[in-house]
Amino acid sequence: MSADRSFRGWMGRALDVVLPPRPVYAHCDIPCGIYDPHEAQIAALTVIRMDQLIAELPAPGPEAKPEERSLYFSKLARYTAVKEQHAERVKHEVRVIWGDFLTPDHAAKFPTVHDLVWRIMKQASKARQGTNAADAQELLKLVQEFAEIFWQAKGAKTRRVPSQQKPGGELVVPA
Q1: Does any domain span residue 18?
Q2: Model's pTM, two decimal places?
């Protein structure tokens, strides 16, 4: 091994100790070209369903037994955690498509897409913060708009089909 290579290797390792490299994450490093807004739509429906379950959860009265209170708070915590995970899932799925799939040509063809992504991010955060059913419905509506743009960018027409899920709603799919 040459002295130059050895020195560069030593310097690189020393630099990694002083300034450790940060891990980088991506949907696909190839890139694979496989993107689909379906998961974002399902996650938005899950946010709606968790808000429904929270609204249906009977609050224990003042005379409730400790185990009834415990059951209530346990369910409330689980529903809230799942809602928050899926609101974040919406944000993740949309960010990946926006950042990895959409190109400047797409942005020129769909001039509202950047603002729409920003609104989805804000709406997902808002849906996480409360249990207002209208906030969750608005999140789904925005994600559906994004799905329509995505499929149009891929040259596909879209249609809406019933989700067949408990919260109801529709999914945007390629026609």
Answers
A1: no
A2: 0.82
Interval 115-145: pLDDT, tens: 999 999 999 999 999 999 999 999 999 999 9
153 close to 54: Cβ distance less than 8 angstroms? no
**Range(s) of the domain holding residue 44:** 36-174
CATH of the domain at 45: 1.20.120.400
DSSP string spanning the chain?
--HHHHHHHHHHHHHHHHSPPPP---S-SS------THHHHHHHHHHHHHHHHHHHSPPP-TT--HHHHHHHHHHHHHHHHHHHHHHHHHHHHHHHIIIII--HHHHHHSTTHHHHHHHHHHHHHHHHH---HHHHHHHHHHHHHHHHHHHHHTT--EEEEE--STT--EEEEE-
Q: Which residues in the chain show pLDDT less than 50? A: none
Q: What is the pLDDT of residue 10?
A: 77
In angstroms, the CA 148 to CA 155 distance is: 11
